[in-house]
Amino acid sequence: MVDLQERQAAATVAAASPAIHCVELTKSYGGSLALAGLTMTVPRGEIFGFLGPNGAGKTTGVKLLLGLVAPTSGEGSLLGRPLGDLEVRRRVGYMPELFRYQPWLSAREVLGVHCELARLPRSAWRLEIDRVLRTVDLQERASARVGTYSKGMQQRLGLAVALLGQPEVVFLDEPTSALDPVGRHDVRQILNGLREQGTAVFLNSHLLSEVEMVCDRVAMVDHGRVIASGRLDELLSGGSCRVRVSGLDGRQRASLQGFGTVEDDGQWLTVHGLEAERIPELVERLVSLGGRVYAVEPRHQSLEDRFLELLGHQA
Amino acid sequence: MAALTIAKLTVWEASRRRLLLALLLLTLVIIGLTGWGFTKLGEAGNGQRLPDYQIRLIASQLLIVIVFMFAGVLALSSVFLASPTISSDVESGVLLALLARPVRRLDVVLGKWLGLAVLVVMYAAGAAILELLVLWWATGYLPPRPVELIVYVAGEGIILMTLALALSTRLAGMTGGIIALVGYFMAWIGGIVGGVGQAIHNDGLVTGGLIMKLLLPTDALWRGAVFAMEPATVIAALKATGSAGAGNPFGATEPPATAFLLWTVLWLVAVFGLSYWGFRRRAL
Ligand SMILES: Nc1ncnc2c1ncn2[C@@H]1O[C@H](COP(=O)(O)OP(=O)(O)OP(=O)(O)O)[C@@H](O)[C@H]1O
Ligand SMILES: [Mg+2]
Asked: Domain ranges in chain B?
């Protein structure tokens, strides 16, 4: 963990200012804590996944970082400017969890309003609007009223609004909640494209397999507290290994505890929390104990496994 | 200026939702009907034409009643238009995306107010000018102070709109709307009660009327509009009866005092400030 923070700090120095940085950001509504002491840094050009169960405080986190709600305590910065700074919002894109846009306007008109509010040069509006419409594949219905859109189309519009003006950091609060598989695939491509341009993405999501596919770094929150954070590969280091072995008695089986948590269902032994490099060592040990090994199945831990593990559920 | 964008959006919404069209059509129908009525004014029952001075007198009093109806329509429309503005945008989430742009909460409140004010003034001025033109064409009569008439009627609408907007920052549209409407009718009754107090020299009633007038200056502005429509002869006649007719909501012998007009401006600023205060801390 310390090592991780050091590495984050090093990355921070590399960019002029990190995309997002906050220290002990806290928000309570009345007496109840929605987010408690969020401390993190998101470097530019990375996709950051903010995960957690319902009501964990993800949306609250995004709203705090955008300055849409005032923190109860703590502080932070967005692109080097203090939270709530007005001017920096010209360089920030946001798609809310409730993606609702004026139903009596067309997608083009909604985007026009946002161009105006973001103070993009008027001459660039047309091209920019066409560009984002193409990116989210909404050109065909772009002149129809938003009120007549399907839910997925409205979410695509939300994504287009967030991408308008080539922002330096984009906040997406569950951007694929209403999208079909093709749409989800498109979003992953859009996110990868953003990373290539050096745009930081702050992604709130439940869809762990998706997060696993695109995110460089994640933080998991539960009940307003960060319970784990770091690079994906580091977070998922603890894999597991299933072996089918015979000829070992109970005492011998129990002596394998040094490799990790052992789950024993008679035929199969599962060792949780085993790094891939130690698998030969484990096999060697089994053989030296007199066991006959029929199968070895290393298993990569998925983000979902880790997520459930951290939340204290059975995988 | 983000506030101007929000104002534009507000006017845009009213026209896209066909509110302007509906109001325009209804207003044209009313103006057409009253115009027809005005052309028939001169015909007395026995087939003879009334003398011109009588036609003008009747026209002047009819106009007050017609404008009362217009002012009522404007007051109700202002409330219906303004009371859901901020609350419904917060509820639907439309404001989230807007406020993540370089837009202050003040810009939102100011923009909504400006947009609604443009709608109120457009309606007040448009309907009044058309009605007066028709009146003039049909009877040759025009009220003595047409510009003041428009200002007072528009002012009444703006006051109610501002109140409803302030309520919409914290209350659901329906709740705020009902409160504003009750206020509007109370102010009207307050004006009558105060007038009756003057007529029967009852200080308690006069004070009650005054307090109501200060709390919500709509009826007092309506009296200003009445004064702007009264011909000099009627004012002289009313004055001759002393304070006996002060309770009549369709009569006025004096324009609103300058101090009261200043109070109205202060009231607007204060209630607008309240809207900002209400919205500034509202959780989204
Ligand atoms: N305006 C509010 N007033 C009171 N409590 C709130 C408010 N907004 C959020 N909360 C509370 O804060 C907590 C965190 O909510 P938040 O919306 O951030 O969760 P989330 O992680 O985004 O959940 P989900 O995955 O369901 O979107 C919840 O317990 C919620 O009830
Ligand atoms: Mg959420």
From this structure: 2-280
